[in-house]
Amino acid sequence: MLRTVYYDPFRVFAPPSRVVKGAEATHADKEAYWRPEVDIVESKDHYQLLLDLPGIDPQDIEVTEEKNVLSVKAERARVESDETHQLSRVERKTGAYQRQFTLPEDADVDSIKAESQHGVLALTINRKQPQETIRKIEVTR
What we know:
Elements: E1 3-5, E2 18-21, E3 24-27, E4 38-42, E5 46-52, E6 62-66, E7 69-76, E8 95-102, E9 113-117, E10 120-126
Antiparallel strand pairs: 1-8, 2-3, 4-5, 5-10, 6-7, 7-8, 9-10
């Protein structure tokens, strides 16, 4: 079974993500904490992770695997005000995102495929076929 690895001990101290004063929106924190939803699907021959990353260009998503830990990184830029338009409400979370998943022993890390379509990143990981673990060892004199 896949296990999600994440821990942010300072999350409880984070200020509200956005504050709106009058007609002017201000960003209370420059790097808002956001954690897209993930579904994990297991079948007899593969695992599939479905991550919601709306508004993220597939070229801006980084997927890596190291020592049986799968990492997904992305960043969503915030909308800025300028002379031509002014923000009156800001609700979408922005900033850097990283999530890690510890892969099970039967995950074939060489087969990982990533596809992004309509704001959903689909990571497919084949399962290794069980190897014959019993072998006969000849006893000599």
